[in-house]
Amino acid sequence: MTGVCxxxxxxxxxxxxxxxxxxxxxxxxxxxxxxxxxxxxxxxEAGFFANVLGGLLFGDLTVGQSVFADLGITGGPxxxxxxxxxxxxxxxxxxxxxxxxxxxxSAIVLGAEKMCVPGLGLLNSGKNELETRLGLxxxxxxxxxxxxxxxxxxxxxxxxxxxSVKNRAHAAANPHALFRDPVTLDEVLNSPMIADPxxxxxxxxxxxxxxxxxxxxxxxxxxxxxxxxxxxxxxCSGSYQTPVDLVRWETDRRGCELAYKKAGLxxxxxxxxxxxxxxxIAEILHYEALGLCAEGDGGRLVAEGATRLGGRxxxxxxxxxxxxxxxxxxxxxxxxxxxxxxxxxxxxxxQVENARVGLAHCMGADRQGDARACTVAILSR
Amino acid sequence: MTGVCxxxxxxxxxxxxxxxxxxxxxxxxxxxxxxxxxxxxxxxEAGFFANVLGGLLFGDLTVGQSVFADLGITGGPxxxxxxxxxxxxxxxxxxxxxxxxxxxxSAIVLGAEKMCVPGLGLLNSGKNELETRLGLxxxxxxxxxxxxxxxxxxxxxxxxxxxSVKNRAHAAANPHALFRDPVTLDEVLNSPMIADPxxxxxxxxxxxxxxxxxxxxxxxxxxxxxxxxxxxxxxCSGSYQTPVDLVRWETDRRGCELAYKKAGLxxxxxxxxxxxxxxxIAEILHYEALGLCAEGDGGRLVAEGATRLGGRxxxxxxxxxxxxxxxxxxxxxxxxxxxxxxxxxxxxxxQVENARVGLAHCMGADRQGDARACTVAILSR
Lengths: 381, 381
Fold this sequence. Notes:
14 helices; about 20% strand; globular; homodimer
């Protein structure tokens, strides 16, 4: 039996797309994925569209329907999904479910975000909540996690900053990344302080962007030229336990465990990882949740070079959110596009040698840094 | 093998809930559904939240996560869905898929909308499109359909108006409806003209509201006291063919055909129908798409009394959108709540005698009146 596969992937470079509407970017990315899949748009039976800010910023509703209709993908189920920073990867799990349930045999997953607009400012999520008014905006919550990690495990400021050095070096080799210039350890440490100890280069930048995947099962998957298997597509959410353990991310660990179990694999089987490095400390916490190292050892893992291109388990060879940029709805899809590109051996200068299994991890965190949505997908060739 | 079932249903009365936030209404409806299901919230493995205007009006994002966490439904997959007027029923199909795919064994579907707010005015969907600027707002597009139906099939103004008389009479028997007072044929015909020939009482009113369903498969469904079977949960979208045939709604027909095929049933098997009567003409077109009568005979069907409570196939015994009100994200869920209530024999004064099979039909139409999303669910006991 053929499982659910990715048969096409497309990505618009992340950055400023001042002359493009949200729908324009989405159409372009989708077109790339469809062409890559080598099938007619009319053959795609369902569409899942992920976006966070379109309604809030532009009054856009049912954008997915407009985009898919323009592409010639008509008639089938179309759904618009919002799940914070994990919107794109949540849409991916829904497409996976629809195929696994036998409702459709193919689907397109499309994530797009336009956020480089005047006056965006701080995103106003939770603006009316007491914690936010008292200063617990998202960077502050990650600053607290970093402080706690330093306190509990002896993680150093340099180790934190090395996450950004690594991801910016990776981004420099990725033509689709927002930042194409590497940064030094000193530059990261000396960039302006955002939320102590996190400096600016340790916080991911906003961007405009779009990414798309074509998924298939059954005969459509069997007929595809270069199908990549989806071994797990997990979505989970927070348990909202209090007090919050700032360095042991319960949702993160649970999502990873579920994915490993579903795939019948473990951390030692991974050839590469894309994870949600919204802040440098986040990547370190994800190392630990993913089982790439022991609890508390995340800082040392990056310092050893284990997670850089050429290391034991390269993480965010795309540049990650810190290097490639973070257009909210597009990110979760773009991570999987990177895994697919790597498993096909088509990643050029940033290719992970002989990559056979990859994991994409995405997370939408709330002000307290708990996960509103955590997704983990495992893919293999 | 036990299929996917509805094991709990809850509905907040539709109307003005001035003192309630969107999340407050959602929590209340969800609580009713969970209590009705007779299971602990902690046992519900996934949550699907439908809403249209929260981001646009209030800047609300990831509302589903907030609501489900407050209810104690934590840890599992949670997704926020927007699909215009069919948001709630689209969320229903996603929950169905997740259970059918074996990803989870239970899920809650929650639709909520708060739209009775100062200055809402006309919804701005498509405000930048040429057709909208030229006057083709939603009521106008349905006015055109009504004119064409009159021209082509001899449908009368009285037949159109009788849809509203019927649905307002049904609503008068439904304690959860916005309008509790029936209206006469003269009152409908003489209410202010909105889009010729559609008068005000032939256009559905906005409302605040929330509705919820608990779905289950496997052992959870088998253990439920009063499970209602889901025989089909179809979502489809428009083919966007031009020129548009104003009286033969291609998406509508296709959605219904798919549902009948999936359920192995036909229109003669239906004991009741909830359909998307956003305007009186819409209900008449849906009769024809559903196969309740021949093409062009919709006006005569309502005039004969076939679709009123006690008739051959009662339609919108809840009062429909015209009588119960139309809080966008809640409507598609509320329709299925009504079918479940009727199939259980718990509908009181508006009970359809010996109801065994019911169909819920919902549609999000664009300015041209084509379907952005059309859902058809068939349920049976």
